[in-house]
Fold:
Amino acid sequence: MNMRFSVLASGSTGNAMYVESERTKLLIDAGLSGKKMEELFQTIGRSLSEVDAILVSHEHSDHIKGVGIVARKYNIPIYANEKTWKAMETSIGPVQTDQRFHLETGSNLSFQDLTVETFGVSHDAADPMFFVFHENNRKLALATDMGYVSDRIKGTLKEANALVFESNHDINMLRMGRYPWNVKRRILGDMGHVSNEDAALALADIITDKTRHIYLAHLSLDNNMKELAKMTAEQVLLEEGVTCGTGGVLLHDTDPYHPTSLQIV
Ligand SMILES: [Zn+2]
Ligand SMILES: [Zn+2]
Structure:
């Protein structure tokens, strides 16, 4: 059986992703309430009681809101790097010592048949990192909350069979929108979030003939629309010589409140 995954929820209202192999079940971030996390698992026909570990990308509340609650209720170990542990400690509440694990940026860790590779990103958190999952020669990558996509990151993500990739905002919608200037500057800056166009340009460098599924993720509610993100990706990728749709790369939506159906990598 190849790896499967679901983007349970994606966006500034809360992020969570589920990855499973034959022998391992992982939850990556839990940025929604405990109750909502349970609902999301129920929708994909899985249960939090089966989860082997929670991996935390960074301490922003849209990634950790339910981490402590879920870990305590279902007795799940939490993995994060040292700086993230320090930064989220007070927000997630008490966690037993035997549930605390360190996973440093740039290191790899195997959970039975599934190996997790971590990489650092440029984002305004203590030590933000994201993940590549390897199982049985298949590769799934998760990369959101990035100010820009460096060549190093592109190299790490290359050859992935499936990617969950940030396509945060449309630059014009953000510029003309209601956000105060300092917030706009943060989002547009090198430590903020990736725009639709920059996401597509980066993806054009990452996609190889092994790449089949792209999930556009962490869309801004105020400064983006699913159709616009998809259209921009399609156009830019086409200009860069990548075909989307039948026979090419399949573009998928993600949603802030509804999980994507379990996808085989
Ligand atoms: Zn986020
Ligand atoms: Zn963030």
